[in-house]
From TrEMBL:
The organism's place on the tree of life at top rank: Eukaryota
Record keywords, A-Z: Membrane, NADP, Oxidoreductase, Transmembrane, Transmembrane helix
Location in or out of the cell: Endoplasmic reticulum
Broad class of where this protein is predominantly found: endoplasmic reticulum
Protein name in UniProt: Uncharacterized protein
Length: 342
């Protein structure tokens, strides 16, 4: 059917429907009505699936039991925010946890707290992921002999402030740090731990992406690019290993109240890390790619179903917000002043 035939069909369908229902609509209104109906039909499977994932699966306990996966869990970026919440919620289930992050004192405090509260064993590995690839040998040594059933690849860094790609201070080092923290850990930690999970025929790997990786994100291009890597890498692996018994999941949050987001007060759009992670753990084994929280799911739905041509419109809106943030960033102004002085 070519476009002219399709157009004639729409006019005919519109005319027939109008004669049945006495609806007095212009052709533009007809197009709007048909487009909306088509969109609703297209979204029905999504809504049914979401209903199952949010309400039915948690109530029926269809999600994975991390205790059955192995005695230990490994969480990167465990000293703060979403990683800390994963470490706490996994320890609450009675699974021992290896905590990996930069600040040893924060990790030691958390390890003590988890041991006292939940009676689990803990291990602290203090590394800086920006230091290079040798740290993976250190991590591997620390993990030797542990039966690791769950891996949470959570470590990730953002921009100190939003900026044009070529105007970031120390841009080459910044690009390297973004790749060292947002791309290498998810790749190398998975490569390190997946074989032992496959040999046991069970395990869970959770990789934390970001909503900003699902659409083009001007003034945050490195972050958006690295998070797109995480998501695509995870989805591909999840299919590649679907028969191995290992569950591989991409978690794609929008804003969560943490140090990174700078949102100090949780709200209905921005949950606390604890609330987010509690819900996220109930999607493991249910969804291989999830944004967990209802408002975050709606944002993804909007751009994936093309509502209001969201992908382009959404990126443009983000660009405008970031341009505003850039112009008003005190951090950026301080860096610019400093560089003028030197
Ligand atoms: N918060 C959000 O709104 C949001 C939205 C979408 C996606 N995400 C993703 O969620 C993940 C966690 O974010 P978050 O908000 O929880 O971040 P956060 O509160 O800033 O915590 C980051 C964690 O990573 C560790 N870390 C940072 N740089 C490190 C380095 N060079 N070497 C080792 N550890 C390092 C930090 O350890 P130290 O405390 O020792 O520095 C901390 O434990 C990230 O992958 C992020 O991209 C977050």
């Amino acid at each position: 059917m070519d476009y002219l035939q399709l157009w004639n069909f729409i006019l005919w369908a519109g005319g027939t429907f109008r004669s049945f229902t006495f609806l007095e609509l212009s052709y533009l209104e007809w197009i709007g009505l048909l487009w909306t109906l088509a969109w609703i039909v297209y979204c029905i499977p999504y809504f049914i699936n979401t209903l199952y994932c949010i309400w039915i699966a948690p109530v029926l306990g269809h999600y994975a039991n991390l205790r059955k996966m192995g005695k230990w869990a490994v969480v990167t970026g465990a000293s703060d925010g979403i990683g800390k919440a994963y470490a706490e919620e996994i320890a609450r289930l009675g699974v021992n946890v290896v905590l990996i992050s930069r600040s040893k004192s924060k990790l030691d405090d958390l390890a003590r707290e988890l041991g006292e509260k939940f009676g689990v064993q803990t291990k602290v590995v203090s590394v800086d992921f920006t230091e290079g690839l040798h740290i993976y040998d250190e991590i591997q040594k620390e993990l030797e002999g542990l039966e690791i059933g769950t891996l949470v690849n959570n470590i990730g860094i953002f921009y100190p402030y939003v900026e044009y790609f070529t105007e970031r201070p120390n841009a080459r080092k910044h690009s390297q740090d973004m790749i060292f923290c947002n791309v290498f850990p998810v790749t190398f930690m998975t490569h390190m731990i997946l074989p032992q999970m496959c040999s046991r025929g069970r395990g869970v790997i959770i990789n934390i992406g970001s909503y900003l990786g699902t659409i083009p994100c001007p003034l945050n291009s490195m972050y958006s690019g690295t998070k797109a890597f995480t998501e695509r890498f995870t989805e591909s692996l999840s299919m590649e290993y679907e028969k191995s018994g290992v569950i591989i999941q991409a978690v794609i949050p929008e804003y969560v109240s943490t140090r990174m987001s700078g949102v100090t007060k949780p709200s209905w759009t921005t949950p606390s890390a604890k609330e987010y992670v509690r819900k996220a753990l109930k999607t493991v084994g249910v969804e291989s790619r999830t944004s967990v929280y209802i408002p975050h799911r709606l944002a993804i739905l909007a751009h994936e179903t093309g509502i209001f041509l969201w992908r382009r419109f959404g990126s443009r809106a983000i660009f405008n917000v970031f341009l505003h943030l850039r112009a008003n960033s005190k951090h950026r102004l301080a860096v610019l002043k400093q560089s003028q002085r030197t």
